[in-house]
Design goal:
single chain; about 180 residues; alpha+beta; Immunoglobulin-like; 2 domains; 3-stranded antiparallel β-sheet; about 40% helix; rod-shaped
Length: about 180
Amino acid sequence: MHYPAPYAYVPPPRKRRGLKRTIFGGLGLIANAVGLVVMPFVAAFIALMIAGVGSMELTPLDAREATFQASSAKLYTVAVPQADLESTTCEIEGENITVALGDPEISSGQVDGVDYFDLYDVTVHSDQEVSVRCEGGSAVALWEMGMVGTLVSLGLGILLPVLLGLASLVLTIWGIIALVRSR
């Protein structure tokens, strides 16, 4: 007579603790490597869109003498119509400013349907009043670009992937330690 084998208690296989953490941490590190390359470009594009859309308007200035209140959180461009690019010269004064020649190929915008092009780029290092006196041209306009949105999006484009990478690294190390201890 043949008797069936007795049923005995078989313990379940040992659970490998930390396997999920290790896998997800490793996947996070791979995704972060891609994010560190791609995210700064995406953030720079978003920053340019925020800066460009937020400051599409030109403010007309008196060509003989004008003043404007400048903030260190913005960049300024003095622009003139294309016909006046060659003949217009300006003297821009302020306490702590940097003035550079602008790119005459870049259009800053329009005033009354006339395209204005960059003549001077003005960087202000402290909040102050800046005076502009121009000769040789009939019309001058001011274009300002806010830098706060640009700096925030660029900061997020670099800071966010770094923080997520650190979290992935911690998760991976924690998972490996738990996996080794569960053997």
